[in-house]
């Protein structure tokens, strides 16, 4: 569709606060116009042979990889994350396109094995129609890719609303799809504040699904809003991941994984460990080593080579992390490193030092709420059973991690952790070919691989009675 006219929103460099662009602030009417465009494009795209759809998705993956540096630069500007993380995000995003293209090969009518003579039964995968994607700012390219690629693979057309902080990555991805030949109206990126746009989409009976990544609170609002039109939902919501270190864990491996998982995007990922639950026999060693490694992480501008920790996304985020630190200290926690913001010249005051707190307890806010920042609180626990009990004492259930050198112990932990994703001796779990999603307050629905494409399909079952039994001739 054509660009929206009217009001605009500034887009800022997350580290410096400088305005780097303006994008339209779409109205409800403009959001509905996007649905008009997606609806008009639906018959043609749904009727495009799956092999042609797959080919386009693969070309999009290749073009994204070819523009890796440019895309990573946009991500780093909008989010503030280190360039190496942004480059990894571009690769992750491209993988979603390849994964969805692979799945196209599976999208054909399945003839059921005969159960009675005189009947032919089949199941046909049909696109569910126009779908909406509402994406977060922490992975502005990859989170759109993992909603757009499977939707297009399934034959759906899409309207998409990126987070206000990070629309440029989404627009860059849409541009790549257009250059690769995606028909007009098949993807419509709408920028602006969420309320008018998302309300318009939920009320519009033509939008048959909304896929959202963001907070549990907003997920609840979407569920209420989806009731009238019975809009299908995929909700990837807040996490509160436990990180279990058993007595026999390789401590240096666990520390490396904790650093990677906890401080990626400055702790602003849904799957980052939020609660460190460590066996009492190794808790001091783990805590000291984690604090030393965390204190050594270079903080600064994402574009500066070697920087590992960028800014938090907003002043509210800084206030929340600070409040969690203060609450933990008030309740007896000991700050081993960090605990406050650090000044980076010519930048916003949102760089929060990687923080490790020992002596964490379940009464602390950080053990009950998602911090979404660079805070690693460590609790000491006496037994394996108690570690699992503490890990599961939450309504959230996105990711969980277990570290032990005994394969049976990690298998036992993986079995008992009540969450959608488990990392055993690793925090590097993200994979475009695997099912990503949670349970409980972390939402429902899966993204990635065949699971991701299934979310955009409605299977039509056709049962045909034949007057003559089918016999061999
Ligand atoms: C998220 O935490 O929001 C997504 C993380 C990922 O896919 O790696």
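Q: What amino acid sequence fits the structure above?
A:
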């Amino acid at each position: 569709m054509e660009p929206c006219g009217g009001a605009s929103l500034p887009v800022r460099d997350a580290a410096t606060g400088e305005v780097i662009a303006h994008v339209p602030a779409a109205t409800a009417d403009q959001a509905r116009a996007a649905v008009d465009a997606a609806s008009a494009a639906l018959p043609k795209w749904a009727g495009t042979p799956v092999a042609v759809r797959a080919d386009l998705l693969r070309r999009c993956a290749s073009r994204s990889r070819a523009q890796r540096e440019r895309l990573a630069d946009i991500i780093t500007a909008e989010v503030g994350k280190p360039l190496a993380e942004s480059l990894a995000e571009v690769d992750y995003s491209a993988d979603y396109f390849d994964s969805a293209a692979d799945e196209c090969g599976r999208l054909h009518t399945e003839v059921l094995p005969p159960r009675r003579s005189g009947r032919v039964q089949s199941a046909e995968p049909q696109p569910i129609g126009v779908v909406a994607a509402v994406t977060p700012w922490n992975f502005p390219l990859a989170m759109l890719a993992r909603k757009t690629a499977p939707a297009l693979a399934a034959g759906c057309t899409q309207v998409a609303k990126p987070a206000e902080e990070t629309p440029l990555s989404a627009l860059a991805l849409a541009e790549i799809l257009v250059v690769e030949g995606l028909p007009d109206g098949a993807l419509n990126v709408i920028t602006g504040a969420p309320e008018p746009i998302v309300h318009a989409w939920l009320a519009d009976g033509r939008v048959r699904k909304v896929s959202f990544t963001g907070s549990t609170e907003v997920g609840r609002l979407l569920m209420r809003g989806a009731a009238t039109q019975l809009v299908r939902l995929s909700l990837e919501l807040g996490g509160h991941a436990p990180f279990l270190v058993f007595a026999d864990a390789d401590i240096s491996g666990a520390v490396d994984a904790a650093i990677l998982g906890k401080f990626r995007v400055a702790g602003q990922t849904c799957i980052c460990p939020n609660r460190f639950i460590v066996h009492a026999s190794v808790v001091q060693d783990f805590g000291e080593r984690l604090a030393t490694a965390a204190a050594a992480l270079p903080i600064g501008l994402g574009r500066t080579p070697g920087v590992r920790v960028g800014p938090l996304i907003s002043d509210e985020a800084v206030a929340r992390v600070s409040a969690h630190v203060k609450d933990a200290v008030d309740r007896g926690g000991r700050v081993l490193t960090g605990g406050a913001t650090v000044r980076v010249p010519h930048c916003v005051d949102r760089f929060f030092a990687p923080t490790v707190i020992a002596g964490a307890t379940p009464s602390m806010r950080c053990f009950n709420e998602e911090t979404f920042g660079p805070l690693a609180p460590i609790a000491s626990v006496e037994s394996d059973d108690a570690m699992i009990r503490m890990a599961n004492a939450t309504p959230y259930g996105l990711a969980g991690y277990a570290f032990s050198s005994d394969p049976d112990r990690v298998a036992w932990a993986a079995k008992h952790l009540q969450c959608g994703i488990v990392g055993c001796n690793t925090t590097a779990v993200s994979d475009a070919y695997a099912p990503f999603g949670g349970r409980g307050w972390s939402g429902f629905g899966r993204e990635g691989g065949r699971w991701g494409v299934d979310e955009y399909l409605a299977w039509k079952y056709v049962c045909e009675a034949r007057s003559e039994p089918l016999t061999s001739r």
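Q: And what stands out in the fold?
A: Residues 241-424 form a domain with the Aldehyde Dehydrogenase; Chain A, domain 2 fold (CATH 3.40.309.10).
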